[in-house]
Design a protein that fits this description.
Structural class: alpha+beta
GO biological process, one term: phospholipid transport
GO molecular function: phosphatidic acid transfer activity
Largest sheet: 8 strands, antiparallel
InterPro entries: PRELI/MSF1_dom, Slowmo/Ups
Oligomer: single chain
Number of strands: 8
Shape: globular
Pfam family, one: PRELI
Radius of gyration: 17 Å
GO cellular component, one term: mitochondrial intermembrane space
Order of helices and strands: EHEEHEEEEHHE
Strand order of the largest sheet: 2-3-4-5-6-7-1-8
Strand content: 35-45%
């Protein structure tokens, strides 16, 4: 099992970042997500928006990984649950793969909150727990997947979020943005 975590500070207020996060797929800057279906969306009695979505993803796995996994299947599905609390100004999103679960599980949690010192910025904390099952070289594959998640996190959060709201990111990180990563083996 590998645990990957990251923190990113967006140079935009929480409301703006949340609107972008809710619309970040489909996204030409991350073509791996090929479809999004909203299965359920509702407001609770506290005014929180609950969403349950199904994401269709296409990951171009290297041939060696397909051979190790014993599959040629690269279309996978991810179940995503999110809660947006406009009063507390917090969005929590949890996702997990629902295909190839006999081989691998990836459980991800993202939390968006206003920056504690600057309300014009937003903090995103991410954690992913990656477990490859019943395969020799599982530690290698877990590391490979964690590195892919980390690489995508470096490339996509500011561009995909900002790009969808047409903010002036110009393909570069938000001014004053910061990102911290860690990777541990469980």
């Amino acid at each position: 099992m590998k645990i990957w975590s990251s923190e990113h500070v967006f140079g935009h207020p929480w409301d703006t970042v949340i609107k972008a996060a809710m619309r970040k797929y489909p996204n030409p800057m991350n073509p791996c997500v090929v479809g999004v279906d909203v299965l359920d969306r509702s407001l609770d009695n506290r005014g929180r928006l609950h969403s349950h979505r199904l994401l269709s993803t296409e990951w171009g796995l290297p041939s060696i990984v397909k051979a190790i996994l014993g599959t040629s299947r690269t279309l996978t599905y991810i179940e995503e649950h999110s809660v947006v609390d406009p009063v507390e100004k917090k969005m929590e999103l949890c996702s997990t793969n629902i295909t190839l679960t006999n081989l691998v599980s990836v459980d991800e949690r993202l939390v968006y909150t206003p920056h504690p010192e600057n309300p014009e910025k937003t903090v995103l904390t991410q954690e992913a727990i990656i477990t490859v099952k019943g395969i020799s070289l599982s530690s290698y594959l877990e590391s490979l997947m964690a590195n892919t998640i980390s690489s995508n996190a470096r490339k996509f959060p500011h561009r995909s979020l900002c790009g969808h709201l047409f903010l002036s990111c110009n393909g570069s990180p938000d001014p004053g943005s910061q990102r911290h990563f860690s990777l541990t083996q469980g």
